[in-house]
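Appendix B. One record, verbatim.
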Amino acid sequence: MGSRASIQLQETELNEIQSETGFSHNQIVRLYSRFTSLDKGAIGCLSREDFLRIPELAINPLGDRIVHAFFTESNNETVNFRQFMRVLARFRPTKSNQNKNKLNTREEKLKFAFRMYDLDGDDKISKDELLSVLHMMVGANISEEQLGSIAERTISEADIDGDNQISFEEFVQAMERVDVEQKMSIRFLH
């Protein structure tokens, strides 16, 4: 399978992806191999169903939101390898001496996290959206009343302009002391 992945990925495309995402040559080849193994139709792109076959995403309470992020990048019903790599690049660690690029900056990581909560895509997080995501994360482990209280407190603490919603700027400010670079990083093998 490794040779199939290497053959199908052209050297120029590999170099462009490396420049665009900061991943090493070996990381790209390995991720391409993983991509092609997920591409059950062998059509060069992934569907939502392909993503949901990933066990870690299938059991993740936010798996559907994470999958949605890949399709936001592609604006399509499928995701090609380059789009796949652009989303994954947001999870590259930023504090190591790897190549830094615009896709894995703190701001891009925060935009990605913000979109996890902004369910309707209106660039604001409402109390209802926050409640929906909290439900996804904790299920029935916390009472409705407790979840409502958490959502209200979160909104009131982060909402600077008093519109009872959290804008991206307010989200950034609320996340000021959070080590987003650490929390939103995945170690990709070299």
